[in-house]
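Weekly structure sync, notes
Attendees: PL (lead), two postdocs, one rotation student
Agenda item 3: pending single-chain targets
PL asked that the sequence for the first pending target be pasted directly into the notes so everyone works from the same version. It is reproduced below exactly as submitted, 295 residues in total.
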Amino acid sequence: MAEREHDQVLRFVIEGTPIRGQWVSLDASWRRCRDNSEADARALELLGEALAAVSLLAQSLKIDGGQITLQIRGEGPLHLLVAQATRERSLRGLVRQSAELPKGEAPHLEQLFGAQQIVITIDQGQGEPHQGIVPLVGRRIGDALQHYFEHSEQLPTRLWLAADEHSAGGLLLQRLPGELEDGDAWNRVLQLADTVTDAELLQLPAAELLHRLFHEEDLRLFEPEPLRFACGCSRERIGEVIRSLGRGEAESIVAEQGGIRVTCEFCNARHEFDPVDIAALFDSATPTPSNLTLH
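Predicted structure, written out during the meeting:
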């Protein structure tokens, strides 16, 4: 068996139908996110599924220069999950746990997070971001997203997601507008895809998996594209956030703590600003609001 591709997304179409799909594997990029999140294995699986989902959706949506963010915030044992991907094929994410997770059968997401919704934000890089609210139903991220697709006016879409401690993977199918010459094609393709297992998503090379699922279909594969972990934090962006606090508040923190220290939760990079740095921030630029959200 050929080796499974690492950190790649691959697009395909089923010829003669308005059906397109994508396959994704996350390995080193997934482990980088996992290592920055201290949480139980179950919580990390949900993060992996979320990262696979946004990686697939970022490639299927027209967000050139933008990004898609999936966020769950609540008051349960898992109080925060964030997964973000860009059209430039970079991703980052985290999950935060505040209490032990329930034992036994995998609990519903609503119970784990103490929340009732997922917030999906699509930022095109210009204009106001578009935000969608997804009911937090089911036991897996794919369950909640499937509920969203079934009740939205977007293209008919199905997702299959999996994650373990080593990798995350996923499969996406979409039906584009247009008449089906073969009226049963969409239902047939979905039934075939429903036979995929978590192990196959996490272990099989793309071509082998797609051949196993769709060997009776006329499949056209495109060149795979690489994915990578990348964090958008920088000293400049942190400086913008500090300026947005106002000079008085920033100098108050410096007086109490001797400086301002910020650790990025996505990549663990540490940014330190001493009293001279803080003075320079306010003396050299007019305070500007920042879109950066600190989690």
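Discussion points:
- Confidence is low (pLDDT under 50) at residues 286-295.
- Residues 41-60 form the longest helix (20 residues).
Action: rotation student to compare against the earlier draft before next sync.
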